[in-house]
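Fill in residues.
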């Protein structure tokens, strides 16, 4: 079953700020980070246990390949809730 992805307001702002920062220097790299994030979320929505357990109970961390970025998420009512982007 494919799970829906819901972003917290803070995580969405962090993600957009990252893309904006990268795009100032290299728009193609920003587009690539965005594409890799979308791919990661598609994979995760099919296999939500792919991330590794974080220090907080119920939170998992997923490293987005070849970007140097990660995000924390929780499984909440058949949804992936993205909590933090860094």
């Amino acid at each position: 079953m494919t799970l829906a992805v819901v972003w917290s307001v803070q995580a969405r702002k962090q993600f957009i700020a990252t893309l904006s920062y990268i795009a100032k220097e290299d728009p193609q790299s920003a587009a690539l980070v965005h594409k890799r994030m979308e791919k990661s979320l598609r994979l995760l929505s099919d296999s939500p246990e792919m991330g590794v357990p974080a220090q907080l109970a119920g939170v998992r961390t997923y490293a987005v390949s070849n970007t140097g970025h990660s995000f924390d998420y929780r499984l909440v009512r058949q949804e992936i809730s993205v909590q933090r982007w860094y």
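The longest helix spans residues 27-46.
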